[in-house]
Amino acid sequence: MSDAAAPSGTLSINVKGPQDVKLPITVPTGATVAELKALVAEANPDFPADQQRLIFSGRVLKDEELCSKYNLKDGHTIHLVKGARPAGPSGVPGTSAAAGVPSSFGAGQQVMGNPLAPLMNAQNAGALAGFNPFAEMGVNPNDPNYMQNMMRDPAVQGQINSLLSDPAVIDQLIATNPELAAAGPQVRQLMQSEQFRSFLTNPEAMQQAMGMMGGMGGAGGGGGGGFPPPGAFGWGSGAGAAGAQGQQGQQGQGQGQGLFNPWGSTPPSAATGGDGAAGAGATPPAAGAPGAFNPFAPAGGAGGAPNFQQMMQQMQQLQQLQQMFGGAGGLGGLDGAPATPSGPVVPPEERYATQLEQLAGMGFHDAAKNVRALLASGGNVEGAVGWLFEN
Amino acid sequence: MAKVPRSFRLLEELEKGEKGIGDGTCSYGLADGDDILMEKWNGTIIGPGHSVHENRIYSLNIVCDASYPDQPPSITFLTRINLPCVHPTTGKVDPSKLPVLSAWKHNYTLETVLVELRRDMATPTNRKLPQPVEGTNF
């Protein structure tokens, strides 16, 4: 064994990977780990060198080190793990690129590798007429699973959270949208509200919104055409959720899904005061028939660009509708789905009991703050941790 | 049964670690190949799949003092991890919270400890615990 370490010699080692992958590799004794990785990649193209993580003797081998530094000898076995692909040109293997760490959004400029980038551009550009933000992404906006999957992704949730918590982004969003600017300070307040953010990152709420989109698609006619940008999308569906849950101003079980309703709810820590803010925000006068309420009509409708004002009108129409139909029933009919009566008020402390326990276990002892964090993250512990670090 | 002296026992474990016997999810070896007392060891655990630890590699320090294997080794995580048996700031594994250490048996090995730690990460209560950013150390 000892004579195998001659400077000009070679080492015969085994590289053991997942699923019984076993590669006998012969490497020159003076080789670096990076060279070893290249040999492994040659032997098995499933493992590109930049995705390999080699472990020997309880250590992760570093690219720049010589194999000899790790006392590799003939017959030794190295474990191979396939790591994540480095995220960017500067990505270092082993560091997390998509951990949902906030701070990547300065003033809404595009960030490489950001799955939401096309969406953000759509928002910031202010060019909304007939614009389908999903077209760029090569996905079918009518696919009910797409949005849901995207929203389930904690990275995306984190990004939305961080995006909307950044006042600069909201400023820009408002500045590029005359209608938003005209609607006054409530907009900013609303966008910064935890409820709004948590709604955007709540997969169930989004799912219901997608469901509504499907249900309402046919009824659009001459109403608002074009696919609204994500922000507006959130608004429309939020209004829908408020309708589904009646006027009691409580958060309940919209369609039995434990849907979190940013407008209907009035938790004690609410930043915007629930329904009040929604009402105040809906300054433009309401007009038009129920048929006009179609924020989700697929692109191609005859109407003009959907804008904030329109969304607000629709919201108010919905409120009127809601009154007409007597609360929950109204939306149920529109939605094509039976609306379940809203459940009893469950305080967030109770709903998020397990999550609160976890947070406490992690050393976040401010219970009131934890509740707010969970509300902001829609019950997602990781999101809540992010929020707590931010605030 | 005859008791294997500490050094023979550790040499055996060292060879096993270097040859990579086992399922490949845990690895260990001497921190310093010249350490004739074989006290300080490195260990790695590849995070179990279907858990928050998936695709993460955890590095640990293992110290086998003179009383090993009659007494359990002391384990310290180098990679940050959120696990009930691991001290949140020092990374030290609390022996009283990990059955394999609290009920130590002479024939347990370093591999036993690492495999048990990995199993602990995959338990239903632990596998979804929120974890610190990957790649940070204690």
Oligomer: heterodimer
Question: For the record, what CATH class of one domain in chain A applies?
Answer: Alpha Beta
Structural class of chain B: alpha+beta
| Count of distinct strands of chain B | 4
- Kindly report the name of the CATH homologous superfamily of chain B: Ubiquitin Conjugating Enzyme
Largest β-sheet summary of chain A: 5 strands, mixed
Record the strand order, biggest sheet of chain A. 2-1-5-3-4
Q: In which range does the helix fraction of chain A lie?
A: 40-55%
Organism (chain B): Leucosporidium creatinivorum
Keywords (chain B): Ubl conjugation pathway
GO biological process, one term (chain B): DNA damage tolerance
Protein name (chain B): UBC-like protein
Verbal overview:
The complex is a heterodimer of chains A (about 400) and B (about 140). Chain A has about 400 residues and is an alpha+beta fold. Among the domains of chain A are: about 10-80, Phosphatidylinositol 3-kinase Catalytic Subunit, Chain A, domain 1 (Ubiquitin-like (UB roll)); about 145-210, no CATH class; about 350-390, Ubiquitin-associated (UBA) domain (Helicase, Ruva Protein, domain 3), CATH 1.10.8.10. Helix content of chain A is about 40%, strand content about 5%. In chain A, strands 2-1-5-3-4 form a five-stranded mixed beta sheet, with helices on one face. In chain A, a hairpin with a 2-residue loop joins strand 3 and strand 4 (about 60). Chain A starts with 9 loop residues before the first strand and ends with a helix. Chain B has about 140 residues and is α+β, with helices and mostly antiparallel strands. Chain B has a single domain, classed as Roll (Ubiquitin Conjugating Enzyme). A four-stranded antiparallel beta sheet of chain B has the order 1-2-3-4. The longest helix of chain B has 14 residues, at about 5-20. The model of chain B has no long low-confidence stretch (mean pLDDT about 90). The interface of A and B includes residues 55 and 94 of A. Chain A: InterPro entries: STI1_HS-bd, UBA, UBA-like_sf, Ubiquilin, Ubiquitin-like_dom, Ubiquitin-like_domsf, Ubiquitin_dom. Chain A: One of its GO terms (cellular component) is cytosol. Chain A: Pfam families: UBA, ubiquitin, UBQLN1.
